[in-house]
Amino acid sequence: MKYLLMIYENEKAFESLPEADIQRVMGEYATFTEALHTSGNFIAGEELEPTAAATTVRIRDGKRLTTDGPFAETREQLGGFYLVDARDLDEAIGIASRIPSARHGSIEVRPVREFTPPEA
Amino acid sequence: MTDPATILERVHREDYGRLVATLIRALDGDFGAAEEVVQEAFAAALAQWPREGVPREPAAWLMRAARNKAVDRVRRGARLDARVGELEVVARIEQALAPLPDGAEWQAVPDDSLRLLFTCCHPALSSESQVALALRCLCGLTTEEIARAFLVSPATLAQRLVRAQRKIRTARIPYVVPAPDALAERTESVLHTLYLVFSEGYAATDGPELLRVDLCEEALRLARWARSLLPRDAEVASLRALMLLHHARRRARVAADGGLVLLDRQDRALWDQGQMAEGLTELEAALAMGARGAYTVQAAIAALHAQAPRAEDTDWAQIASLYERLCVLTPGPVVALNHAAAVAMARGPEHGLALVDDLEASGRLADYHLLPAARADLLRRLGRKEEAVEAYRRALAWVRTAPERHFLEARLRELGVE
């Protein structure tokens, strides 16, 4: 079963870390991602650019409205994700708890909806 | 006891949870489907038994009926979803439910109930759903009974249960006893659930009976397993001590006419000495492990009662100070009421009454019958008869179990009121 692990973090706090700390966290991420490949859980995973680079699009009354920034103002921002294959929620929670950002940010674990193909 | 409906009711009370627990495993963790097939089996029994007679092993009959319905269900489902190998699924059901020779008594795999308990207490479910789900699936309480225990409407509770079952299915919460490293995270809610199951049995919120011994025993059975799973957890030992010390008094709590007998009037010879001793040993073990939590304090209170040879020997001063600590650990109106009652015993009814009046003024127990009942008792002891009668009448207006009603009516008669 597929789970999307969404990494939420205070990006301002992360950006203000000393360079050495950022390097250390990046190293932890590399090790973690490598382990996910080895265990066979990895499907996809990316780090996102900060929300300053974000644009929100919506269509209202048939008109497109494009605005700067993310849709919601929150303390923590979506900074990256992993798409993993896990046996059940407990395995997915186990993986999420090893993501380096789990120690200061939070990881939302969401099952990916599976569509049953229509009967042949 | 040959009336099929009566027997069915008893089996429902005693075996519902274990039937559901086994079926959930067979149906690969599908709570909703398991409940449905067990309910279908009960419906079939209700239709068949009056015509064909009650089978010799009613629970085994229901297990077979539920299994057949589960197999039918999987066959129907497998036709709809070609990706699932039908034979494979049916084989798994057959294996999970183990072939039952005719007439053999059905026995649940002990692990099933524990698995069910831990799944219900998964931290991915909201805490109110956890307990509701456990009471529904494990103990077979009706949605109405649970709703009353939680003081919410049946519709709200039903919605909560549906949402929890849907999350178990869509997020795929596994139907297992968690690995040792994940146990700690779940212990608290497992203990809380067991505590509520026991409490519901110890003082049923509704119905003709005051005690639901079956619920108490189910909680004790699960607490013993939890204890062997977590031998070094002080709170588990405390909770088990608490349950044993209370359950040991069960025979003395209900009179021959079904009425309630309060602690001070109980025949202490009816207390189960073996269970008391086991409870005290558990409490010592818990204290040796450094237990200081709410279950420990409650067990210590029960132990002080257990150790008094006669009611008048009770160490009320110490009990009052333990309740004071409990008010800090788990603040709540019910604990406050118990504290007031202990203070009344230790220092005199007028001191208790002052605390009860404070509680009433706070308005936190607006429709709780034990508040006027406690007030009435203190007023009676202070010789303020008319106020006592009025308080007993208010308690009677809110009381829900028949034995408690009889108890209050008897107290009113003692005051010369019909």
Automatic annotation (TrEMBL), chain A:
Residues 1-116 form the YCII-related domain. Belongs to the YciI family. InterPro entries: Dimeric_a/b-barrel, YCII. SUPFAM superfamilies: Dimeric alpha+beta barrel. This is PhnB protein.
